[in-house]
Amino acid sequence: MDADGASSSGGERDRDQGKGKGRESSVVVDSGRRRSSCGYCSSSSSSSISHGLWAYSLTANDYQDLLDRGWRRSGCYVYKPEMDKTCCPQYTIRLKASNFTPSKEQERVLKKMQRYLDGALDTKFDKSSDQSKSNLLCEELNKSSGSRILNNTNQTNPLSVTVPLQETENQDKFMSFLSEKIDTAVNTFFKERGLPLTGQNPKSVVKNVKPQMKRKLKDIITKEEDLIYTCNVSFQIAAYIKNMDSKIENLDSVSPSIIAEELVRVISSENISGFIIKACSGHLNFYSGAKEETVMVEKPAQTQQTGKKNYESTPQKRRRLVIRMKRSQFDPDEYALYEKYQTLVHQDKRVSKDSYIRFLVDTPIPFIEPDGSSRVPPCGFGSFHQQYLVDGRIIAVGVVDILPKCLSSKYLFWDPDYAFLSLGKFTALKEIQWVREMQAHCPSLEYYYLGYYIHSCNKMRYKAAYRPSELLCPLRFEWVPYDVAKPLLDRSKYAILSDFKTTENTNLLPTEKPGTSSTNDMHHHSEVHNENAGCENGEEETAEDENFMHDEDSDVEQDEEASSMDMDDDEDDEDDDQIGADLLADHAQSIGDVVLDVHNTRIKYKDLQKRFVIRKNFLSELEKQLYRYIEVVGKDLSSRIVYSLG
């Protein structure tokens, strides 16, 4: 995969804090708790609860550590679900690429793409136009026989290989198509004669003419014609008319032969290319307009002796797939594809260039160039758009972050015209393959992060199909095998996954359900509330999910929606914001090490009052914010990331 050298975008939020020295360190503004409606359970209330940060800059290392504490980004907005409170807990899910074993279904996805690239998989049946469908179906029928005519009749001792035209995997589709055409002609026939159209009208059935039947009909089939299909609906129509009320006006005494001729007249106007339609003794017969095609292949021995060319069938056209890694920047072709995807797949009528840039182009992660060492992959660290092009046309774009330990899949959008290729699954498999290949250059880059796994939402469970995966414990931030975590999640949508170590072969320890809290242990409540985690096609993503997956679509879109919500008033959550005295003492040391950005001046909190005159009530509120910030970010990160006061 090629790495494009285009410049990375940080969006309009690149203020002074995000430039110069700010670009050498992580700088965030604390947005606090956010509430919004939930796109997973379709809750009308503000039941989705998360903690958010606006990031002017996030180093690759710091964002990696945030991922490992359940955070995730949408553009420059970084968020983390409050797992014990939100309606649909979101667990970070990852996969060690070297351990990945594709399922049979995933292998079929790869094989289907390969067949498409080899020209062996044709999708022209997806066209909506009846006329183009007719022409393309006939064309497909002729192509799929794999036969060709080679005009080399002078070659000595040619070996003739015949392939009957009707032996094709698309026969059933084509016969169904012909039946629809005949039924339409039957309706026209009834209307022209003033006959009523009811649910009892005869329906046509097209049959393939077997070789033994052709032998019986050899006297009426010329050498220039090959009878492929036949239909006897004319006999059914004649019997139906005879049984009708004789008082019906314009009722002619017609025979199957006359009816067949009338139907041929109507059907012939449709111009089904590649076939000759004739009425024969009341039957509708479909003939190929040419002889059986023959492939002329020289005998190998003869070719060696004479030195003449080996005549073979012309190979079907191959397609070229290119996967290109580009630094995150606005690309009009990508945006056009995104607009098409959102409109047709998600029926989103509010797509705009600005929202697209905020959501998928803006990134707080500064680009780190490769240095030739094994610590940085050849593409560098940062945010990228991974383009999938077939013969130069972009069919899918995966938005990813390349970090010290992983490729983090953020979003996938794809061309709806290529939905038959299961692009959400295909791109996820290619991203896993990319990680495996990169390990030879950067051994630390060994994981594939799929984003958030939501056990309570069936459409987001597909991510567990990439095995063997792990889920992040929302309390201890330990990775737990999915197969171990699943029984816990089957019992409760919020679970402390690392409890499996002490509860093996026993019942699940009591845990708080989302939306509830303990009233007996304030310290335990605060710990569980703050030490939570989350995770994410295109899939598309899938992704897709199927997309969101690799249908990743639903949660990322909901996250974008959440990012525009207003922060809750502290008064609305007075009880939740209350910090116990024990917890305050516990973090007294940590809060002093938090680096603040005050009017572009960097200073530790413990030195704040030495440099500035601070009102007591402001200091008290700031301390509460910082205590919560340390809880959700962690002590180590809170001492590294610059906390901007705006």
Automatic annotation (TrEMBL):
Biased composition (Polar residues): 1-10, 506-520
Molecular function GO terms recorded: arginyl-tRNA--protein transferase activity
GO cellular component, one term: cytoplasm
Domain N-end aminoacyl transferase N-terminal as annotated: residue spans: 36-108
N-end rule aminoacyl transferase C-terminal domain segment(s): 334-473
Signal peptide boundaries: none
Alphabetical keyword list: Acyltransferase, Transferase, Ubl conjugation pathway
Matches recorded under InterPro entries: Acyl_CoA_acyltransferase (IPR016181), Arg-tRNA-P_Trfase_1_euk (IPR017137), N-end_Aminoacyl_Trfase (IPR030700), N-end_Aminoacyl_Trfase_C (IPR007472), N-end_Aminoacyl_Trfase_N (IPR007471)
Keyword Acyltransferase: yes
Compositional bias ranges of the Basic and acidic residues kind: 11-24, 521-530
EC number: 2.3.2.8
Annotated Acidic residues bias: 537-577
Keyword DNA damage listed: no
Chain intervals for the UniProt region annotation (Disordered): 1-38, 506-577
Membership in a protein family: Belongs to the R-transferase family.
Protein's name in the database: arginyltransferase
